[in-house]
């Protein structure tokens, strides 16, 4: 599948409402791809035999992302769909028994059923997304994570057979963007916040700096239905990983808890000629991406929920940077005696100066807040409005999430557990 390139302002895509220090800008038209300015992130483009062609391996390293068709099929995803349906059945039943909902909408398929349930229970998608242990307890997802054909492909990209599964894995349930939400999420209506829309970021920003120079190969795939560009697809800034560093991020300040690249950082990417490329993905296809390539989740203007999974792999001998989940699970090795076990290695150690909530970006956020206040007027008013919205949407959804947690507490883990004790390693 071809990615469709749309030259429109990346800042206009921003959902997180990063504290803006400038007006909206449009990305420059015409330039394609950032120059290779990065030192120290040279990855071999030589590919061992595997499912990707040499051209695809090259494209992944050049662009920072790659849409791949024909390696998985729709049938490969059926077990995951069935597991999600079973899980949702049990959750809806528990919500019904507890009086949280009146209608379990059992007759609907995954995509529209979640839409109907989330109308009544806005905390439901987030509660499912947020429960990583329930995700890694899904046998069928774990099987996909270590599927030999995917590991063959990852081995081509990492140029090593010593492959670990990174602990950042998400089941995302991206309900339709509220019709009243604008692209910047700046309306002062907590119900209009698109809580599942991910602002522009580099994945590395969520981890400790120790992992900035580790190549992590992310995979993002729809698991229920095709994802068209306007159905909550991802958009990548082509070549943005070749800056070779993690650019400054701020708290999105809109109730989502996400991080967002600063306007200055986006300006730097724009000046280097990086352009956004929207990537619609058909069921059975997927996008691979580098942990330093900037990307965002586009709004879901469809009428159904986008169910997707994203997970990551990296070389076992590189820092993973995750201090609050777990470490790596080794999935493959050249050692003939290697026997895969669902046991995660150690967490990274959080340096004392890294704050709990914003990771390493607390200082940048404070600095921007001070700058906005100093500027007074529109910037300060915007910040104030965003903080209010943040608080209101947290309150609204938080109350709903608590009800979901209470009603479903006996269900954990929701799906069949992995063969060994992988999910035991996680903190609930
Ligand atoms: O699924 C989305 O909307 C965002 C995914 C993402 O940003 C990621 O997997 O890093």
Quaternary state of the chains:
single chain
Number of continuous helical runs: 11
**Percent range for helical residues?**
25-40%
- The CATH top-level class label: Mainly Beta
How many domains make up the coordinates?
1
Q: Bound compounds, please?
A: 2-oxoglutaric acid
- By CATH, the superfamily comes out as q2cbj1_9rhob like domain
Characterization of this structure:
The chain is α+β, with helices and mostly antiparallel strands. The chain has one domain (4-425): Jelly Rolls (Sandwich), CATH 2.60.120. Helix content is 31%, strand content 13%. It has helices at residues 10-13, 54-63, 74-97, 110-120, 124-130, 132-136, 139-145, 148-158, 263-271, 362-375, 377-408, and strands at 4-5, 65-68, 163-165, 170-174, 216-222, 234-237, 249-251, 259-261, 276-279, 286-290, 295-297, 306-315, 329-332. The strands form three sheets. Strands 2, 3, 4, 5, 10, 12 and 13 form a seven-stranded antiparallel beta sheet that branches. A four-stranded antiparallel beta sheet has the order 1-9-6-11, with no helix packed on it. The protein has a two-stranded antiparallel sheet with strand order 7-8. The radius of gyration is 21 Å and the shape is globular. It starts with a strand and ends in a 20-residue tail after the last helix. Mean pLDDT is 82; it is low at 1-46 and 415-428. Bound molecules: 2-oxoglutaric acid. Residues 172, 174, 198, 203, 218, 220, 234, 295, 297, 308, 310 line the site of 2-oxoglutaric acid.
